[in-house]
Amino acid sequence: MTTKLLVRAGVFAVVCGAAASAWAQSVETLWERNCASCHGKEAQGGGAGTKSFLTDEYRKREYDRLFFDAIREGKADMGMSAFGETLSNEQIWGLVNHIRMLQDQAFRKGGGGPKRGSDGVYASKHASYKVEDVVRGLSTPWSVEFLTDGTMLIAERPGTLRVWKDGKLSEPVKNVPKSRETGQGGMMDIAVHPDYAKNGLIYLTFTQEIDEHPGKQDGHRGTHTVVVRGTIADGVWTTDKTVWQARPEHYMRSGLHFGSRIVWGEVIDGKRELYFCLGERGQANQAQDLGNPNGKVHRIFDDGSVPKDNPFVATEGAYASIWSYGHRNPQGLVRDLAGNLWDTEHGPRGGDELNAVVKGANYGWPLVSYGIEYNGSPTRVPWADVAGDKAKGKTIVNPVDVWLPSVGVCGLDVSTGGVFGAWKGDLFAGGLAGESVDRFRLAKDDAGAWKVVEREEILRGLGRVRDVRTGPDGAIYVALNGPDKVVRIVPAGK
Ligand code: HEC
After folding, report:
1. How far is the CA of 50 from the centre of ligand 1 (A)?
2. In 143-227, which ranges are continuous DSSP H helix?
3. Can you give the pTM of this predicted structure?
4. Is residue 387 in a domain?
5. Domain extent for 221
6. Nearest CA to 294 among 249, 268, 326?
7. Low-confidence ranges of the chain (pLDDT < 50)
8. What is the CATH number of the domain that holds 310?
9. C or N: which end of the chain has fewer Cβ atoms within 10 Å?
10. How many CB atoms lie within 10 A of CB 89?
């Protein structure tokens, strides 16, 4: 009996082994089998006269495509064959993704990244700064927002709002709308209306749960994000109205990819534009479906009405509020000082994106991506021209910059200058897993394409960054999740 079992187990192991070699398409395996003999296990080079890939030069963004093309077409004169004949475009991109990961590992091992002196001061390109604690005792803070007098509002994902004023944190605001914390969802963004002084209005996004909806299966209750506005007076919330909500059939069970930021635009005919973003809830194809609100940036007015010049108002079945689509999980949204709209969104493994968001554009998910699957298998390429049938006939807008490897990009704001005059107009992007904040300076080139003029990691390793917000005085506030607190970046001299 025992022998039989063992034999069976042996056969099973052999079968599994064979299956594994046929299916093990992880980028690590591909690298080891096809590339490491010459380029080295860590891409350090050395074999067959190869150079190290672990240099500052090779970390530049332009090598994404240069490397992809070099691997596909080979370097015949130097003894590297064209892998385009034996590997798919997805596998070739996966190898570039892998080189990017090895580069980052070597960079971190070598002590790369923001440097804090023994006096707690960070030195950077334009400013020296330090980080100080502002608010502790929070529970999964998700967003922070300011009134002009410096009062800070804080949303906590479990479902609470708190007010921080004159150095004191309030009890939870009473009577806030009931949200449902489920996976990555819960109480999410807060946005104070630009005319708050006149109308007192505060907008929230949160996960709402409903009992009855057409998609209901197995008795499950569905959730979706709603945009609600109201007022806070004497520590009590009063709801004014629901400004946006999905059709009942789109409420669903998933606890993934809620996205969810609110950003203000211009006043048009007396109404204020409001942009907000939704993730694709882990259902990638919904991002391409204009009849589904997920994986989109939306544009409405502050009263919930839909602008008549939205790009898909005349498209049958489409959500009229859609502004752009093909987004995966946008957790950062901001308008820069010149009025350009930007989002940051999570890619899969490798490939978080910074996008310049324009009317009606398709940002490509899940047809193209810089990322690979979480199990390491490469299934996509970043560019429509090499994506084959998937992207045929589609115009896809590529990100202006990416994070390779991913940092779990979350929270985005623009510096208004103030105490950091030299940073005025720069964007600041947070990262959850990366525990990072990156500064971007962006400009259009002569042909009108966005270019990264400067990119600098200014924080690393203080905690998971959930939100980044410029305070009224120009200090950069960072909401951390683990440890749960709000810190701020202030000039070193202060
Ligand atoms: C037989 C040895 C050999 C193998 C195997 C090999 N390469 Fe190369 N590769 C070279 C040489 C030699 C060069 C040119 C010198 C250099 O750039 O280091 C090169 C160049 C490159 C370049 C271009 C660098 C540049 O400057 O643009 C990339 C990218 C690259 N290889 C990736 C790969 C990947 C990925 C694999 C596995 C699929 C691979 N190579 C397999 C030898 C090899």
Report:
1. 7
2. 196-199
3. 0.94
4. no
5. 124-363+399-491
6. 326
7. 1-22, 24
8. 2.120.10.30
9. N
10. 18
